[in-house]
Amino acid sequence: MAWPHYREDWPGKFEPIPWVCAEIIRHLARHERVELIVNDAASEKRARKILDRTNALGDNVRFHRWHTNRVWTRDSGCTFTLAPSVPRPDRRGRLSTRVSGRAELVAVKWRFNAWAKYSNFQHDEKIGSLMAEAADAREVRPVFGKHRVVLEGGSIDVNGRGTLLTTEECLLIKIQQRNPAMKRKNYEQVFSAYLGITNVIWLGSGIAGDDTHGHVDDITRFVAADTVVTAVEPDPNDANYEPLRENIRRLRTATDQDGKPLAIIELPMPAPVFFEGRRLPASYGNFYIANGVVLVPVFNDPNDRFALDILADLFPDREVIGIYSGDLIWGFGAMHCMTQQQPA
Fold this sequence. Notes:
The chain has helices at about 15-30, 40-55, 75, 115, 125-135, 170, 185-195, 240-255, 305-315; strands at about 35-40, 60-65, 80-85, 105-110, 140, 145, 145-150, 155-160, 165, 200-205, 220-225, 225-230, 265-270, 275, 280, 290, 295-300, 320-325. By secondary structure, the protein is an alpha/beta fold.
């Protein structure tokens, strides 16, 4: 996670954001270590003060002084994978004859260009490499042809068995185009080569108000190897009604990596959230699954309780906790967007 500092991501509404971040860290640090990125010593001092006041500061919070542009480490950070251990050359170029039976921690470092939309991303583009080094993971940089592949973590979701979810709106449409030379089959080749993916499920569009232009983590998520939750909108007059209906139609004909159909659980949408006349990408789908807890964005909406109950049924071994995100979503992201998990 990265500590919020860029006020222009929440113009006119920045003051509550550090406190929301502290609340997220308070819950996470009870169950797993939080690697917290701060810009410098002064930023760390401010973060420590707020974390201490909210009872979130402890041994499970570890600080890293790295400069960032924004807090959305799901997209700017590396994607951690576990790969079979293979012989690696020593400094003299000799391959070791000993191969550990343990999986190797690999950091897939995608190129980050701020969703092909903003110009200030130079610090964030380096974050994935810094994360890899801190985790002692082998960094791998995906390429297609002569170019590094641009990808954000929020544009994909995986089941850990070889199946990946993504959207055509994000990766294949020319608006905010990340990789102009890449087609559907090229992405599938990249996912296979760098993530071990054997099966890609292509959904259509994301939700209205999504600044990323189609990230899948607002609409459809794996909650088990064979089960997804997917957002639905019952109001025919809502902008999300038909796109989400099309997505669920695609899911009903999709299969997992073994050719078996998926179990599909419908997740309601909150009522539309607007601020300063702009619709925001409010969705319960942007939850974060942690060790022992699932953090879910909520919006003081009647559907909050239904979404929390659905997820509680799906995660009986974890606490399911709602985090008020009515202010946070003005930055166009929530729990999943601002976190990036690392395998033990």
